[in-house]
Specification:
- With about 425 residues, the protein is mainly α.
- It has a single domain, classed as Up-down Bundle (Growth Hormone, Chain: A).
- Helices cover about 80% and strands about 5% of the residues.
- It has 18 helices and 2 strands.
- A two-stranded antiparallel sheet has the order 1-2.
- Strand 1 and strand 2 form a beta hairpin.
- Helix 1 runs antiparallel to helix 6, helix 6 runs antiparallel to helix 7 and helix 7 runs antiparallel to helix 13.
- The longest helix is centred in the middle third of the chain and has 32 residues.
- The chain is globular.
- It starts with a helix and ends with a strand.
- Its main location: membrane.
- It is found in: Membrane.
- It is a multi-pass membrane protein.
Length: about 425
C-alpha cells in the first residue's frame, strides 16, 4: 500500500513516538488524586500544572514544528524525548506546589517535539502530491498506531501506582520516553530514503529526471515566511485552527478528570484507568477509519470533521443524562474513542491539501497550539469548576456546547490548494 518497507517502518515508528508521548500525557490525570491527597493541596494546583503543560505544549509545537521542517525529525524527537524524561524525573522529587508548577509544565513544553505535529509532518513528507490517497491512509495509520499509547500507557501507569508510591511510578513512566530515540532514527532514515524510492507508482522512475523535477518544484515553492502570510489570510485555515481548539478542550478534560470523576461517583478506581484504555482501543479503529474516509472522500474532509464534532456533542449530552455505572462509563469511553483523535488525520490532511507538506509541521504546529489552548481550559476549568461547585456537571454541558460550535465552524471549510502569486515581494493567495 505504501510503496516500500522503509516507508512503512517510518510510519510505524512515527505512530509509536506519538503514541508514547500521547499516552504519557493521558496518564498524568491518574496522578492527580494521589499527588493532591499526598501533598494536601486541592485539585486545582495540579490541574493548573497540567493545564500549563498542555498550553506550553501547544505554543512550543510551533517551534518544534519549524525545527523539524528545517533540521529533521531525528534532532527534534531526540531532543524532546530526552527533555520529557528529565522533566518527569525531576517532578518525581517535587515537594511543593511551586515545584510542580515548574516541572510538569516543562514536560509539556518538551512534549511538543514528540507530538503528532512533528510525526505527522515527517510522515506526510514521505509522499508526493500525486499520492494524496496514500498520504491520507498513512496519516490515519500513524494516528491509529499513536492511539495505542492510550491503550498501553495508562494501565501500566495505574499498575505502577498500585505497586509503588507515586514518586517511583512517575520515574518509571518517564523511562518510557527513551524508547523513542531509536524510533526517531528509523523515521529519519525513512525520510532520507524517500528520494531513492523508485516504486512510488509501481513503475521505474529515472532518478536524474526526478531530481530535476523536484529541484524545479522547490524553486517555485514559497518559503516559510510567505507560506505563513498566506495561511493567516486564508479563511479555511483560520476556521480549521479555531475548530481544533475544541478538540483539545474535549480530550484533555476527559483524560485529566474522568478517572477522578468516576471515583467521586463511587466507582472503583480501576474504572477510570480502564476507561482511558478503552478510549484508546476505540481510537485505533476510529483514526484508521477516519484516514480511509479522508482518502475515499478527499473533497469532504470538512464535512467529516463537522460530523465528528457534532457526534461528540450528542455523546456528551447522552452521558450526562444516563445513570452512571461501570458499563455506561466503558461504553461511553469506547464510542468516544471512535471520535477521539479521528479529527487529527482529517485536519492534517486538509493542511496538506491546502498547502505543501514542506512546511506541514509548522502549519500543524500552529493549529496544534490552538488545540493545546483548548486543552489548557479543559484541564484547568475542570479542576476550577470542581473546587468551586463540588461537581463536574457544568463542564460536561460545556463539552456539549463546544462540540456544536466546532461542527458549525468546520462545515464551510474548503480544501482547495492555495496558489501563491508573487507581486513586488508580496503574496496573495488564490484557489486553483
Amino acid at each position: 500500500m505504501f510503496g516500500c518497507s522503509t516507508r512503512f517502518s517510518g510510519i510505524v515508528c512515527g505512530g509509536v513516538i506519538s503514541g508514547l508521548g500521547f499516552g504519557i500525557n493521558s496518564s498524568l490525570g491518574l496522578f492527580l488524586k494521589p499527588i493532591s491527597d499526598d501533598q494536601g493541596f486541592g485539585r486545582e494546583v495540579l490541574s493548573m500544572a497540567i493545564a500549563l503543560a498542555v498550553l506550553l505544549n501547544g505554543f512550543t509545537s510551533i517551534f518544534w514544528g519549524a525545527l523539524n521542517d528545517r533540521y529533521g525529525v531525528l534532532l527534534t524527537c531526540g531532543s524532546g524525548a530526552t527533555l520529557v524524561f528529565a522533566s518527569l524525573f525531576l517532578a518525581s522529587f517535587a515537594s511543593s506546589s511551586a515545584a510542580f508548577m515548574v516541572t510538569i509544565p516543562f514536560q509539556g513544553a518538551a512534549g511538543g517535539a514528540i507530538s503528532f505535529g512533528v510525526t505527522l509532518g515527517a510522515v506526510a513528507r514521505l509522499f508526493g502530491d500525486h499520492e494524496l490517497a496514500q498520504r491520507s491512509r498513512a496519516l490515519g495509520l500513524t494516528t491509529s498506531l499513536g492511539s495505542l499509547g492510550v491503550v498501553v500507557v495508562p494501565p501500566v501507569a495505574q499498575a505502577l501506582l498500585h505497586a509503588y508510591h507515586w514518586r517511583p511510578a512517575l520515574r518509571l513512566v518517564g523511562l518510557g520516553t527513551l524508547v523513542m530515540l531509536p524510533m526517531a532514527l528509523v523515521l529519519a532514515r525513512a525520510g532520507r530514503a524517500r528520494s531513492n524510492d523508485d516504486d512510488v507508482k509501481g513503475v521505474e522512475i529515472d532518478k536524474g529526471e526526478e531530481e530535476e523535477e523536484e529541484e524545479e518544484e522547490e524553486g517555485n515553492e514559497p518559503d516559510l515566511h510567505r507560506t505563513l502570510l498566506a495561511a493567516q489570510a486564508h479563511p479555511p485555515y483560520i476556521l480549521l485552527v479555531l475548530g481544533f481548539f475544541v478538540c483539545g478542550f474535549h480530550v484533555v478534560f476527559v483524560s485529566t478528570h474522568l478517572p477522578s470523576y468516576c471515583e467521586d461517583e463511587g466507582l472503583p478506581s480501576w474504572v477510570g484507568a480502564t476507561a482511558l484504555s478503552v478510549i484508546g482501543i476505540g481510537n485505533v479503529i476510529g483514526t484508521a477509519t477516519s484516514g480511509a474516509l479522508g482518502a475515499k472522500f478527499p473533497g469532504d474532509k470538512n464535512k467529516l470533521l463537522s460530523a465528528l464534532y457534532f457526534s461528540r456533542a450528542c455523546l456528551f449530552a447522552l452521558f450526562c443524562s444516563i445513570p452512571l455505572s461501570e458499563a455506561t462509563v466503558l461504553g461511553f469511553a469506547f464510542v468516544l474513542g471512535l471520535l477521539w483523535l479521528s479529527t487529527v488525520p482529517l485536519t492534517s490532511g486538509l493542511l496538506s491539501d491546502m498547502f505543501s507538506p514542506k512546511y506541514g509541521s509548522t502549519l500543524f504546529g500552529i493549529a496544534f497550539c490552538s488545540h493545546q489552548l483548548g486543552s489548557f481550559f479543559g484541564a484547568w476549568l475542570g479542576g476550577k469548576t470542581y473546587d468551586s461547585t463540588g461537581s463536574y456537571d457544568l463542564m460536561w454541558w460545556l463539552m456539549v456546547i463546544a462540540g456544536v460550535l466546532a461542527s458549525v465552524l468546520h462545515w464551510p471549510i474548503r480544501n482547495e490548494r492555495v496558489k501563491f502569486l508573487y507581486t513586488m515581494g508580496e503574496i496573495n493567495d488564490n484557489k486553483l
